[in-house]
Amino acid sequence: MRPATLLILGASGDLTSRLLLPALGQLLQREPARELRLRGAGSDRWTRKRWQDAVRTAFASADAEDAYDRVTDTDYTHADITQVDDLKQLLEPITGPVVIYFAVPPAVTVAACEALRKVKLPDDTMLALEKPFGDDEASAASLNQTLLRLVPEDHIFRVDHFLGRATTLNVLGVRFANRVVEPLWSAEHVRSVLVRFDESLALENRARYYDHAGAMVDMLQSHLLQVLAILTMEPPATLGDRDLRGAKTAALRATRIWEDNPVRFSRRARYTAGTIGDDKIPSYVDEPGVDPSRETESLAEITCEVRTSRWAGVPFTLRSGKAIVPNTAEIVVVFREVRHLPDGFGGTPGDGGVLRFSLGPDAMSLELNVNGGEDPFALHRRTLGVDLGPGRTRAYTEVLSELLDGDVTLSVGADAAEECWRILQPVRDAWRRGDVPLEEYPAGSRGPADWPTS
Ligand code: NDP
What we know:
The chain has helices at 14-30, 48-61, 84-91, 106-116, 137-150, 166-176, 207-232, 241-253, 395-404, 414-433; strands at 5-9, 36-42, 71-78, 98-102, 125-129, 156-158, 190-198, 255-257, 266-272, 274-276, 279-281, 299-306, 316-321, 328-335, 354-359, 362-370, 380-387, 438-442. By secondary structure, it is of the alpha/beta class. It has 2 domains: 4-130, Rossmann fold (3-Layer(aba) Sandwich); 164-390 and 411-442, Dihydrodipicolinate Reductase, domain 2, CATH 3.30.360. The strands form 3 sheets. Strands 7, 8, 9, 12, 13, 14, 15, 16, 17 and 18 form a 10-stranded mixed beta sheet that branches. Strands 3-2-1-4-5-6 form a 6-stranded parallel beta sheet, covered by helices on one side. Strands 10-11 form a two-stranded antiparallel ribbon. It is globular and about 80 Å long. Residues 174-450 form the Glucose-6-phosphate dehydrogenase C-terminal domain. GO terms for molecular function: glucose-6-phosphate dehydrogenase activity.
């Protein structure tokens, strides 16, 4: 199946202009044989010309101006997508395969999916939904049921663009294709794992969404748990969607907060006023649109255990914060110390080496304990590094490529979407009860003072 129409709902929004359209331009540039009918719709009263200009500008931002020639029949429709009549008007003229991409706020997606039940969908309709998928386990399950009344599971693409990131995918190759890594990938050899996404961006006028989500829902619930699943799943028989998604879901099903103790093994914090580069950043609570009484965290951390025979006893820490300097997005796999180090070496290594995947810029390094030099048996650290960029594709380019080919391998399965909420529910309950203090850190710092940084 090769969908012929991409219909973006929420065409005037931030996701569409900043991520989807540039990625679409890059995809069309990369695959000259691909053609597409592109439709935009949304509640803004845009003209056809304004939409076409937006598409051209976004393609240009990805150095893909020429690809504009291959989107045909581009048009924009003003529509409230929660209204059945508007949806009918939008969908009835479309024939043949179509991808409907919900680039709208989560509550609007839910209402639109309900409304779609009263609309005849074109043949071969594929639905693409953004995060957050629901706002707890029950609402995710309910949304899954609604979607399954519209199309079969293999026509539902729950987008998590971290699954399209080159370095996330690279974990698969490094894990499964290297004899020097594959046998070491277990609690027998790995001491701890950190998955971290700290960014220097502050709220950036996104309070309408972020102040309801916070760092845990925005980053940990979706993206970082997907990375954890890729790191910890058993080897799938194939990289096909059933095997890969099944292996990831099994890993998530085995995941719990460390010692089932969300009070000891979660932390939350919020930034106070500070400076990032030349910019003065106001305190999170003074950002426009923030309601301080919500106590939304801008930095979240949890430690989990994956209770399988491969991983029991290894702490996996997931952490993400805003307004943190420097930007650090990485997976850090720390190996256990060797069982015995012959007497005579100078210094103790402290660990048995570290494998580090940088999620941006795309890079990998292996930190080894080596000796030599003036004192031939003194141990010191040396790093073997490889730069995996530049020239790598955007995460959304991979996502759109699969989506437009009707392949759901890089999307989140129905069960996995529910599991991610289940894992975090005890933490959310503890935070709501006020059992975990809301700490503070200055914008532009590395986070709260005693917070470990690597
Ligand atoms: P925005 O608020 O910027 O855009 C949402 C768009 O939906 C706007 O064009 C809005 O129009 C439109 N819209 C709202 N209600 C309706 C309606 N009833 N009928 C038709 N159109 C409607 O949000 P984002 O683009 O930031 O986010 C969209 C989704 O993508 C969210 O689920 C978000 O979590 C997800 N996401 C966003 C990322 C980002 O960086 N922005 C990154 C990853 C995921 P109007 O302005 O007129 O209300």
